[in-house]
Structure formats: structure tokens, C-alpha cells
Specification:
Largest sheet: 5 strands, mixed
Order of helices and strands: HHHHHHHHEHEEHEEHHHEEH
Helix content: 55-70%
Number of helices: 14
Radius of gyration: 34 Å
Structural class: alpha+beta
Shape: elongated
Strand order of the largest sheet: 2-4-5-7-6
Strand content: 5-15%
């Protein structure tokens, strides 16, 4: 999937669902109607009843038009969603104008449209709606109808208290808008990062399944190929060996044998790769497997292995290999001249440390490194390296997810001064590493060293 497609899908996923907004508005309409009717008929307080229901009916008509115009599953564009939320703010302001302005305790409902916008729209649109809500609240401080109250008593809130309510609405709008946007944005980023992780896992799984597909194709093609070989052999006995027909039959027999050779190679390749995948791998061999691609491009990675007792053995786990390779790639990208991998073990734990002599992580990045979309690369570098989220801060997140699925713990720190550089430390419980990844009957790895 291209970067443009990912952006398009992500932007589409942010759009408000029409059914959600319509249902929320029906709930608001029911609450407003119940409040107006309760004050007028339940409490007997005078208020402009007809005008209030005229304002409420405006929301009813908008809801009905939306239901007629669009299906329930329709997702609103940012412009339409912004316009509808702005209408809700103005409709509430009109109702509050008729029922006491900010003296009405329901004035706090100004926060609701801003909260919805913060979870689904861009910060710029949320800021615009917040300013609209604050502007309406400011006008209601200066101009509004009296608060519905008992005719036998007079009730008026001091202007200073009303100003305090206005300040509460302003602060509440700002705080809830920022807080809701931040929470929603983190949830969206996490969902996108997990989707990228699943894409990586799917690609690795497809690659591991190619050998099985090749063996299946060879098996299915074997029977019709044998039939062709038998018919060709019978025709060669029945037809004269000299002449154009004889030459064609000999050519056909040669091509049949060539096809048999290719199918035999495909079948044996699948069996060899499958047996190799199912074999156990030592810790030192695992390290060499992730280091070899770096040496192939001329980067000398120093490797050191040591431990207490026999070297641990475990299943070859594609997810762990991918995650370790990703961390090593990151280290070689930022290293000045040297990257060191130390693999060591004890009777209870297995360790891998990847060190580089680069600048290390910035203090503000170090606290959040490993989270999705946290990166130290510049905008230009992120543009150049956009494959599968490269340069966007997804590489370490994917590596961390895959490695921790295997039962390990990944810690990312900086080298202690005066030296510089970053350290990635991966620790497995030894029993988890040695138990190996569980293999399903279909040959798919569960990517878990816990089994």
C-alpha cells in the first residue's frame, strides 16, 4: 500500500459517521424538549414556550433531512461535519437566549459539540468551533431573556457570578477540546501503527508460505505432465522417427523432461526450506543471521558471545528476526563508525545488546521511544524513507511489538557519559527462548516463544 493510500484511508477513518451524529442529536432534542416541557407544565414557570419549540424543531428538521439525503452508514466530510456542529452550537445558543442565557445551568452543554469535534476533526476546525462557542457564550452574558422562575419570586444571579460561569465555559472548552483531541489522536496513531505491524507480519507469512505453494503446484501439475509424457512416448513408437513429426515428438519429450526437472526442484526446495524453518537455532547463529546483511553491504558489525553453561537453542522465529534486524538497521543508520552486538546467557536469562557510537536519543525522545510515530529523523528523511512507515517512527514500534510477543523485554537507553550512543537491550527468560515458537498445523508461526 502506498503512502498516499495510507493517508487517504487514515483521513477517511477520521470522518464522523452520520448515524452517530444523528443519534446524538435525537438525544439532545429529547432532552431539550423534556426540559422545556417540564419547566412550563411541571414547574409552571413562564417562558416563551412556542419560540423554544420552534428552535428545537430546527434540529428535528435537520435530522430528518440528513436521514432522507444520506444512508445511515454515510461518513460526513469535514466541511459538513463542521457545519452541523456549528449549527448545534447556534441552536443551543438560541435556546439559551430564550431561557436565561448563562444563568441557565444547561449552558455547560456548549462543551458537547467541541468535544465531538476534538475526537473526529482537525485541531483547526475544533479551534474554530471552540471560538464560536465562546463567542456565543459571551453574547449571552450581555443579552438574554430572563431565566424562567416562579412569578411570586424574583431571581437574578449577580453579574460577577455569571462572569464566573462564562470563564468556566471558556476554560472547559479549551481543556476538554485539547484533552479529547490528544486521547483520540493517540488512539488513532496506535491503531495505524498496529495496522502497519499486521502488514509486516502478513508479508512475512506470505513469504514463508511460498514454499508450500510451490510444492502444492508441483504436486498438482505432476499428474497431467505424466499423462503428456505417456502419450508422447506412445506416439513416438507409432510414428516414423524421421521427418517433421518425429522431430516435434522428440522436442516435446525434451520439454516434458525439463518440466519434470523444474517441478522436482520446486518440491525439494519447499521440503528443504520447511525443514530448515522447523530446525532449532542457537543464539550465536541468530545473531549471525541478522548481522550478515550488514556485512554484505560493507558495514562491519562487531559481535561478542559469551555465557554460563551450554548455549541456548530455540526455534527460528521470523518475527524476532525481523524485529532484531530492524533495531540493527536503526543502529547502523545513526552510528558514527561502530556497532557492537553482545549476546550472552545465564542459567535463567538470555540477553542481546545492540550498541552504536552515534548521538543517541534526545532527552525528550528517550522518554517516548518505542511508541508509534516517535522519530528522530528530519522531515526530508521521512519523505525519502516512507516504505511501511519507514522514517515515521513505526520501525522501533514494530520491532518492539514483535520482540515482546516472543516473551522478551526490550529496553532502549543511551550510553552513559562521557561516551555517546544508543543501547537496545533484549532479555528473554531462558526457558521461553529455548521452548521456541509454536508451529500451527498449517505451518504458520504464532510468533511467540512462550508456545
Amino acid at each position: 500500500m502506498s503512502k498516499i493510500d495510507q493517508k487517504s484511508l487514515t483521513h477517511h477513518a477520521r470522518h464522523l459517521r452520520l448515524d452517530t451524529l444523528v443519534r446524538l442529536r435525537w438525544l439532545a432534542i429529547a432532552g431539550q424538549a423534556a426540559a422545556v416541557a417540564g419547566v412550563r407544565f411541571g414547574l409552571g414557570f413562564p417562558l416563551p414556550f412556542a419560540l423554544c419549540f420552534l428552535v428545537i424543531s430546527a434540529s428535528v428538521w435537520v435530522n430528518l433531512l440528513l436521514r432522507i439525503q444520506y444512508p445511515a452508514s454515510h461518513r460526513l466530510s469535514d466541511n459538513i461535519a463542521t457545519a452541523l456542529l456549528a449549527f448545534d452550537i447556534l441552536q443551543l445558543a438560541g435556546l439559551l437566549y430564550l431561557t436565561g442565557g448563562l444563568e441557565n445551568p444547561f449552558a455547560m452543554l456548549f462543551l458537547a459539540p467541541v468535544l465531538i469535534s476534538a475526537t473526529a476533526l482537525t485541531p483547526e476546525r475544533t479551534l474554530g468551533l471552540g471560538l464560536l462557542a465562546i463567542g456565543c457564550a459571551t453574547l449571552l452574558v450581555l443579552a438574554h431573556k430572563p431565566l424562567p422562575w416562579s412569578p411570586a419570586q424574583s431571581f437574578t444571579l449577580p453579574f460577577l457570578y455569571v462572569t464566573g460561569i462564562w470563564a468556566a465555559i471558556v476554560l472547559g472548552t479549551a481543556f476538554t477540546g485539547i484533552y479529547a483531541w490528544r486521547v483520540a489522536e493517540e488512539a488513532r496513531q496506535l491503531a495505524q501503527a498496529l495496522a502497519a505491524t499486521e502488514l509486516v507480519l502478513a508479508r512475512e507469512q506470505h513469504l514463508s508460505q511460498l514454499d508450500g505453494l510451490a510444492a502444492a503446484a508441483a504436486h498438482e501439475l505432476g499428474t497431467p505432465l505424466a499423462t503428456i509424457a505417456l502419450v508422447t512416448k506412445e506416439l513416438s513408437h507409432a510414428m516414423p522417427k524421421d521427418g517433421p513429426v518425429g522431430e516435434d515428438l522428440r522436442l516435446l519429450q525434451e520439454q516434458v523432461e525439463r518440466c519434470r526437472t523444474i517441478l522436482t526442484k520446486l518440491t525439494s526446495m519447499g521440503q528443504e526450506e520447511e525443514s530448515e524453518f522447523l530446525e532449532t537455532i542457537s543464539l550465536s547463529h541468530l545473531v549471525e543471521e541478522i548481522v550478515e546483511p550488514q556485512r554484505a553491504v560493507g558495514f562491519d558489525v562487531q559481535v561478542e558471545t559469551r555465557g554460563e553453561g551450554p548455549e541456548p537453542m530455540g526455534r527460528r522465529n521470523p518475527g524476532v528476526v525481523y524485529g532484531l534486524s530492524n533495531i540493527l538497521d536503526n543502529a547502523t543508520d545513526f552510528a558514527e563508525s561502530r556497532v557492537t552486538i553482545e549476546a550472552f546467557w545465564s542459567p535463567h536469562e538470555v540477553f542481546i545488546e545492540i550498541r552504536d557510537d552515534g548521538p543517541g536519543y534526545a532527552p525528550d525522545i528517550l522518554l517516548r521511544v518505542g511508541e508509534p510515530y516517535v522519530t528522530t529523523r528530519s522531515a526530508a528523511e521521512r519523505t525519502e524513507d516512507s516504505e511501511e512507515g519507514g522514517g515515521l517512527g513505526l520501525g522501533l514500534f514494530i520491532a518492539k511489538t514483535l520482540i515482546e510477543r516472543s516473551g522478551a523485554e526490550l529496553t532502549l537507553t543511551n550510553t552513559a557519559p562521557p561516551a555517546s550512543g544508543a543501547i537496545a537491550r533484549i532479555v528473554w527468560p531462558r526457558h521461553a527462548f529455548e521452548r521456541g515458537a509454536a508451529i500451527s498445523p498449517q505451518g504458520e508461526s504464532t510468533l511467540s516463544l512462550k508456545g
